[in-house]
Amino acid sequence: MTTVSAPEPVASFIETVNAHDEDGFLDAFAADGFVDDWGRIFTGRAEIKGWSDKEFIGATGVLTPTSVTVDGDIVVVIGDWRSTHANGLSRFEFRTAGDKLASMTIREG
After folding, report:
1. pTM of the full predicted structure?
2. Where do runs of H (alpha helix) occur along 29-95?
3. In the β-sheet with 74-82, what is the strand arrangement from edge to edge?
4. What does the pLDDT average to over 17-30?
5. What is the phi/psi pair of residue 27, to 5°?
6. How confident is the model over 1-22, as pLDDT tens digits?
């Protein structure tokens, strides 16, 4: 099986998610960062945490990337998402801001 890797800070973010590290997950986002989960927008640490507690880290999710593309500050990861909340091929689009994530957008893979 071929391992697909993403550039930083996305690679470390995926490792943090797969380790179910809530603080590391939240620390990965810029102060004004947001999550767009199928059109539902969660901005800032408190809103992202509330969403994640039920649907992401709290759902013990694991992302196994199958492809990664990079275009400037946008990193798109297609991968198999498995959790107690949702499962299946998913598309994660990350916008990076230095060593932080400005945004994470989740759609069907």
Report:
1. 0.95
2. 44-55
3. 40-43, 29-37, 100-108, 87-97, 74-82, 62-71
4. 98
5. -65, -20
6. 557 889 999 999 999 999 999 9
